[in-house]
Amino acid sequence: xxxxxxxxxxxxxGTVGSAxxxxxxxxxxxxxxxxxxxxxxxxxxxxxxxxxxxxLSDADLLVELIGGIEPAxxxxxxxxxxxxxxxxxxxxxxxxxxxxxxxxxxxHDVRLRFEAAVAGAVPVVRVLEExxxxxxxxxxxGIVNGTTNFILTEMARGSTYAEALxxxxxxxxxxxxPSDDVSGRDAAAxxxxxxRLAFGSPVHxxxxxxxxxxxxxxxxxxxxxxxxxxxxLVGTAERxxxxxSVHVHPTFLYSGHPLAAVSGPFNAVTVESxxxxxxxxxxxxxxxxxxxxxxxxxxxxxxxxxxxxPAPPLALALIEDVESAYYLHLDVADRxxxxxxxxxxLGEHDVSIKSVVQRGMGExxxxxxxxxxxxxSSLREAVQRVxxxxxxxxxxxxxxxxxxxxx
Length: 407
Ligand SMILES: NC(=O)c1ccc[n+]([C@@H]2O[C@H](COP(=O)([O-])OP(=O)(O)OC[C@H]3O[C@@H](n4cnc5c(N)ncnc54)[C@H](OP(=O)(O)O)[C@@H]3O)[C@@H](O)[C@H]2O)c1
Fold this sequence. Notes:
Layout: E1 5-11, H1 15-35, E2 38-45, H2 52-58, E3 61-64, H3 72-81, E4 85-88, H4 91-107, E5 112-113, H5 124-131, E6 139-143, H6 146-156, H7 161-170, H8 179-182, H9 185-199, E7 209-210, H10 218-226, E8 229-240, E9 243-254, E10 266-273, E11 277-284, H11 288-303, E12 323-333, H12 338-348, E13 353-361, E14 364-371, E15 374-375, H13 376-387, E16 397-402
Helix pairs in contact: 1-11, 3-4, 4-9, 6-7, 12-13
The site of NADP nicotinamide-adenine-dinucleotide phosphate (NAP) has 23 residues, from α1 and α11.
């Protein structure tokens, strides 16, 4: 290869890998004009093509677009130990072996870039690492899974969960096996990575509590609309009680929250800090070309000498029991005294009510309420006791509510 070439070894030539190879070829001339070196693909590895050793030895930098844990982890460690910079879009790997990889990158003074691992084309990693590196961040909320956001958008328009999932599969936003997306696990992996970036504390996927969207009822969305709320799968990472809480849950938002307007397969991340109040980044969270453009941005960042490996972590305690407002849905017998009995039990557990919708349905009534912020453990105890009343006709349902609106 010519000396003015920057050699990129490519691991994986699937949806993102092939889009990346095409984009790199298309943009190589422009990148050369700015950087003086022309990026070229110097070797490719797939299941049926190439040898890792050859790809590694020819490369100035490796791009990993295989996905999953092994063999990607082994390849990245070997590349970092060989002093090669690495770019990866692999959220599973980074959320489960991030510290090992960052530590190896630090030891060998090489870069490990991963913009495409969270929120696809939205440059949230770089903004957290660079633009906001001197900003003490209080909280991050993210819609970081486009599949579930698409499904919830369809449900808000009146589809059932099954219809919305089938439509997501038909248009290519959901895979044949959508379980990682709809269970919240994919979003949890991305929130682990974002939390590590924003708070400098190691967060493993196993530290993130998550809940998916499979169990949601269309009528929750309907009642919530009457209360001025819309439903999203929201990941949260926040400082609380001197520690850090990271979780993913279906969450109601008031219309003034910046994430409320994010619809379809889009992703968005909101960063809150006293210094900057709130800023939101949004855009396409997946797709071959969109993800490839984030990967190419990382390659160019390495070529221009950008961002060093993240600093060694300072562990914050992980807090599980956090405060939130809640939506509470109860099916009850329509008889006098029911609302009073419910609010008495809630009050005994410090759960205070912000708003209520009550609707009679023959012998039954629906009680839908939104609480003020309360510790999750108190809410759970109160709901369990309410569920024991003989007038309660089905399992009470609860969904978190984000109260802030930035209007
Ligand atoms: N697709 C998206 O929209 C998107 C968005 C954000 C992030 N990502 C991330 O980007 C990465 C790649 O995703 P993708 O959708 O492009 O995956 P993909 O279409 O399944 O492609 C995977 C590629 O890796 C190769 N590969 C698989 N196992 C291998 C092995 N053991 N040894 C060598 N090569 C192997 C495959 O080889 P063969 O060609 O021989 O099968 C294929 O070329 C993943 O980490 C994913 O999470 C994807």
